[in-house]
Specification:
Oligomer: heterodimer
Strand content of chain B: under 5%
Number of strands of chain B: 3
Largest interface: A-B, 67 and 84 residues
Shape of chain B: extended
Helix content of chain B: 55-70%
CATH superfamily of chain A: Metal-dependent hydrolases
Number of domains of chain B: 4
Number of helices of chain B: 28
Number of domains of chain A: 1
Strand content of chain A: 5-15%
Strand order of the largest sheet of chain B: 1-2-3
Mean pLDDT of chain B: 55
Strand order of the largest sheet of chain A: 1-2-3-4-5
CATH architecture of chain A: Alpha-Beta Barrel
Distance between the termini of chain B: 29 Å
Shape of chain A: globular
Distance between the termini of chain A: 47 Å
CATH topology of chain A: TIM Barrel
Low-confidence stretches of chain B: 111-124, 157-242, 354-416, 436-459, 470-485, 500-539, 551-564
Structural class of chain B: mainly alpha
Low-confidence stretches of chain A: 149-157
Amino acid sequence: MPGLVDLSARLREPGFEYKATLESEMRAAAAGGVTTLACPPDTDPPLDEPGLVEMLTRARLEPRAARVHPLGALTVGLKGERLAEMAELLADAGCVGFSQGNAPLPGTAMLLATRCKHAATFGFTVWLRPQDADAVARRRRARRRGRHAPGPGTRFR
Amino acid sequence: MIAETIALRTIVETHVGHGARVHLAPPSSAAAVRLVQEAKARGAALTCDVGVHHLHLCDRDIGDFDANCHLTPPLRGSVATAIRCARALADGTIDAVCSDHTPVDDDAEAGALRRGGAGRHRRSNSSLPLTLQWGSEAGLKPVEALGRRHPPRGADPGRARGNARGRAPPPTSASSIRRVRGSCSRRHSRARARTRRSRDSSSPAASCAPWSAGAPSTSPEVRPMQNPSARFLRRCRALPPFAPSTSRPRSRHCIAEGSATIERLAAADRAPTWENFVEPLDDANERSRAWSQVSHLNAVVNSPPSRAMPTTRRCRRSRSSSREQGQDQRLHAGFKAMRRSDRHSRISARAQALRREPAARFPPRRRGAAAAAEGALPAGPGRARRKLCLALPGQRARRDQRLRPLRHRRARASGTPAGRAATRRARLRRRMAARAGSSRCTMPCYMPVLQYADHHGLRERMYRALHDARLGVRRARNGTTARSSTRILELRAEVAKLLGYDVVRRTCRSRRKMAATPARGARLPRGPRARARSLSPSATCASCANSRARELNLADVRACDVPT
């Protein structure tokens, strides 16, 4: 059986070491037959600087570990406001694509268009999770007030 | 769900114009899958993966807020969505399957749904068997199934690195996008070649067709997916096989019976009341909408005949419900006659009187209490109703408790400047008025029952309110319990039997949908209970109904008298 490729596996490092560590996740990946994995940038801090990305790619140097291909943060701090320095910093540091992780898309379509232009120019892939920023913000506000946002209704009768 | 589709449309529109390569993280609804399919048909350089758990789980699996089903994106869809995702993966609309491994800490894993972040621990471990299970259900060989674990070209981490170093992106026409083919390590290239050969030999259509428009139909070897819950249901023999040949005459019978009821009611020359006019009509409505049973069961066991059945009879069904029942002039006349009837005017006159001079309705002893309470209560349109509830026997201590925050507020406000105190009082008054408005005694109006008959939630609330009202009043009078809830259940059982389902109990009488016993039905629906609590801590809907019946001097209270 060839080694498997996992397109999205969070390693929770840096920032969330209490949830999982690089070592434990590498073991889990090996147990599942995964030899190559792409890691979304929603760590703490997000992967928007070359130093953080290099820390993950270095994990490959350990023996019997899966190859990690980090995804860079598309916007600075995943906040959806300013584009990260994609071409200069992250591509050279070893990112294979740029993603927002589980954060919603930036509110304006123009920013999306801009980064699509960047991506087309420099030839990397944009990994996106379709999720509208307005809707997410609305739900968060509702939750803060202690109400549920209207979810999908019950279908059965 | 709309957040997903809107964002997906935005992505497709912006990125198709600029020719960037986009890889989409899991779509979680059938609409999203459809959008991806359309975008690909238009030639967008789009790839897409799906979390392996979204192939196997659906919203029902969340159950009692199982933290293990707290995923991102959430399990939005029904079984049908999971099946659709699995099919889309099989036919290539979705290019790859990933584990979406998201470790969480132990607390979040063991705790309730709302606490802690979304995620499944150790999904890397479980994704391999789950992928293989999907493959076996989709009729693929294990090797082929594992082919989907390999990313499509655009999203392949290994190759994207090469592209990122300034090389031009590959052409973005539809024909250049092909699925499969991972390049995880050179060692396995031979194994991969074998994989590809075996794929191509088993599915010739997929090998010659470029991955483009109309592709879903080019995989004839893919069987319909079977979802785990359907398998489980079949194993416990809860549902007999669904046969259109047996169900069609039965559905005709249902509709004919409904039409006969309408004719009978329209032709009757006695004065229409709730019992002899609305209830039979509502029952007939239940019966003619027997197809909701089919659609519900279709959601449980999705099979081609059960999908086709509602469609074939849709025309007749809609004619029965809209033209014969909804637009019948004679029925409309009946409703109008009922509105004009004595009982209706009597109730409305009493209620109007109550609203005009509330204190006169109170017995002298309680009138004093009400007057005492009046000083502490802000004036407003809700005062009458509030006093009515405050004057219930045995509520005085609780009333004091309830008024304490008011007094406290007033004392606190006394030290503040006059303007602020007034503002605060005005705000409080507004709030009280808004809240009291919802507990106003409503006029009986029968039209909405049928007008919104298609709104299931409203109908169920009406039924429950009717049931509660009857229970509250009749139990007090002669000890008998109501029968409306059981009557609905009987009707539903009858409908299901007519359609060929003998074991309706398990599917229709489940606890979540409808009360299994009258006692359970007597538990309060959420809305009235919350309002009753806002009036007094221990008031129940039944006691509210009782008091209202006493105050209005009514022989009985109808569903429409109970605010919902």
